[in-house]
């Protein structure tokens, strides 16, 4: 059983779609671009304000407190070992 027909992969050329829709959408949205930019600016400012309130402000407060207040003294821990030796004299009768 011999088959002379060997299946071969043939390349297929795929042509890109036309991008005529994108310029049409741009033209339709052109009047709204200033409003969209204003909204994006407000959202960016809100994100920066929230970051400042949540993360930067506590760090700034801590650094300001360190500048105003004197640095706390470092505590030292000293380990003291105590040994008790008990000596007893035991007399055994033999």
Q: Summarize the helix and strand pattern as letters.
A: HH
Main sheet makeup = none
Q: Using the alpha-carbon principal axes, give the shape.
A: elongated
Q: Please tell me how large the radius of gyration is.
A: 41 Å
The mean pLDDT is 83
The span between the termini is: 110 Å
Task: Label the structural class.
Answer: mainly alpha
User: How many beta strands in the DSSP annotation?
Assistant: 0
- Counting DSSP H or I runs of 4 or more residues, the number of helices is 2
Query: Could you name the ranges where pLDDT drops below 50 across 5 or more consecutive residues?
Result: none
Helix content: 40-55%
Task: Give the percentage of residues in beta strands.
Answer: under 5%
